[in-house]
Amino acid sequence: MIPSSILAVAAPLFLAFVVTACNKPTEESSGVTIEHEITPHPVRVGPATLTLRLADARRQPVTGASIMLEGNMSHAGMSPVFAQAKETEPGRYQAIVDLSMAGDWNILTHITLAGGQKLERQLDVKGVRAN
User: Fold this and answer.
1) What percent of the chain lies above the pLDDT cut of 90?
2) Which residue of 10, 13, 60, 125 sits 20 to 30 Å from the alpha carbon of 21, by its own alpha carbon?
């Protein structure tokens, strides 16, 4: 049995490690704003179009970015879905994401800007409806 004095010290350290290891840093200091829209609305099972608009601090379009999307159900056990967004006009990117099941989804955006800077954002898509 582990003495309570060791547990009193070890438990907070372990918790701090787990919380730190699970948190991804945000890129708020990047100066890039990301707006998103998903259609159809309401979102239904099947293909959905995700549109992202990237702008810099001066509200100018951010062009030449590479954007990979990873869609995950909010519960464990489902395989992720992937899509690559294509730039359709300066600063506007679109992808078709196949939402294969009703429920809540999280879409991770993995963005690499033209200069090599990497950004990640999570978009929550709540209440995807069955057809």
Assistant:
1) 70
2) 125
Q: What is the largest CA-CA distance in the chain?
A: 64
Q: What's the predicted TM-score (pTM) here?
A: 0.74
Q: State the amino acid at position 42 in one-letter form.
A: P
Q: Alpha-carbon distance 118 to 7, whole Å?
A: 39
Residues in the chain: 131
Could you count the other beta carbons within 10 Å of the beta carbon of residue 9?
A: 9
Mean pLDDT over 122-126 rounds to 94
Backbone angles phi, psi at 94, to 5 degrees: -135, 150
Separation between Cα atoms, residue 33 and residue 24, nearest integer Å: 18
Q: Residue 95 has which token pair?
A: 């992808």
pLDDT 10s digits, 44-66: 999 999 999 999 999 999 999 99
Element (DSSP H or E) covering residue 13: helix 4-22
| Domains present along the chain, CATH in parentheses | 28-128 (2.60.40.10)
Q: Token pair of 25, please?
A: 């840093």
